[in-house]
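lol ok so funny story. i was supposed to be doing the assay writeup but got distracted and ended up predicting the structure for this chain instead. priorities right. anyway since i did it might as well share w the group, maybe its usefull for someone
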Amino acid sequence: MRIAVLALQGAFLEHELMLRRLGVDCFEVRQPDDWQQPKDGLIIPGGESTTQGKLLHDLQLLQPIREAIASGLPVFGTCAGLILLAHEVEGNSPAAEAPPRLGTMSITAARNAYGRQLGSFRTTSAFSGITGDIPMTFIRAPYIVEAGAGVAVLATVDGRIVAARQGSQLVTAFHPELGTDTRVHAYFLNECMRTSSTW
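and the output, tada:
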């Protein structure tokens, strides 16, 4: 198995280290040529969603990644990755002026919903499909305001949706890569294996 990790900005290295702990090969996507490599899934890391979206657009990666996800490529977005995958984002400018994003998942996200850096926190909570509570690190995190048709809610914290899945798309508002617990990444890898396809 080989996983692509979007490496334009943000905490991509931490995801790569987590994948390697699980014995999975990965490569960084920085240019269109990188994207052409065979892959079984894609991780979109936390960071700054506006910056990542603009770079995806400027580097002509936005459309090919969107098309691959629409075709069934498993994708895992954390924090900023959740915002990039969300079909709607609360408080955005009109569509013509909104920052570029993939918009492939039927969710509405609230960005920086947990406040600024000083509002970051850690907790534990249940995650559907994983036995036992998992650690969750939130950093200027979004959350999911609304989950549309076909979206399964996987985890909530204080009544707010912080993890969800739609088909082969998985998102978390928290950063599972910023710790030692590999179970959320393993959950994603199981989805990659289930699809039995390489893009």
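Helices lie at 12-21, 32-35, 49-58, 62-70, 80-85, 183-195. The CA atoms of residues 32 and 193 lie 25 Å apart.
back to the writeup now i swear
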